[in-house]
Each structure stands twice: as structure tokens, then as C-alpha cells.
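Need a sequence for this fold. Nothing fancy.
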């Protein structure tokens, strides 16, 4: 299984940014996929998760601002980040909980 994230950049607070994660090597449309993030010195936390049927779950800190979605035809999951805040600065990781695959991470830096 290979996960390839893209879209991480340095941005100012506010506005929108979209991260993408291409998932290769599995039958994508039968697996849940998640985004996690890890800020310096902190643990890795769940940002959002989406089931094969499109049911979504969000971490409390991003509810109402971030949206996870998936395109099964492209084997890709997206994270739309709106109203970015400096505390969103972290390395964002794509994850397929089963079988426990992780991407290499993409850095998002939000300045005030």
C-alpha cells in the first residue's frame, strides 16, 4: 500500500487550502481513510476520517472548518481546510487504518 500526500504549503491565516492523498495498492473504495496531524512536540491527532460509504468524523478542533471527502474513481481522499489558524500548523498524514498504512506527511504552516 502506498499513500502519497500533496498540497502542503506555507499560508497565511484565513482562506482555503486543499490537501490530497492518492492511495495505491488496495481496493480503495472498501476502506476508511483518515487524515492525522502532528505539531512539533505534540502527539499525532486525528483530524478527520471518512468511511467507504462517506460517513465522516472530525476532531473537535477542526469541526466546521475542515471537510474530508473522497473520489473513489481517482483513489484519492481530500482535506479541504477553511479558515486556517496558526494552530493548524503541523505535518499532515494520510492514513488507511486497516491495514495500518501511512503516507510520508506534508507540512502545512499557517502564519498569523
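Here you go.
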Amino acid at each position: 500500500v502506498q499513500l502519497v500526500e500533496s498540497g502542503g504549503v506555507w499560508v497565511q491565516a484565513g482562506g482555503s487550502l486543499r490537501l490530497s492523498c492518492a492511495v495505491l495498492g488496495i481496493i480503495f473504495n472498501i476502506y476508511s481513510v483518515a487524515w492525522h496531524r502532528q505539531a512539533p512536540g505534540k502527539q499525532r491527532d486525528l483530524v478527520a476520517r471518512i468511511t467507504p460509504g462517506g460517513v465522516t468524523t472530525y476532531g473537535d478542533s477542526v469541526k466546521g472548518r475542515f471537510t474530508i471527502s473522497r473520489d473513489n474513481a481517482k483513489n484519492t481522499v481530500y482535506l479541504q481546510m477553511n479558515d486556517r489558524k496558526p494552530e493548524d500548523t503541523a505535518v499532515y498524514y494520510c492514513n488507511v487504518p486497516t491495514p495500518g498504512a501511512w503516507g510520508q506527511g506534508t507540512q502545512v504552516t499557517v502564519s498569523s
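For context: The mean pLDDT is 93.
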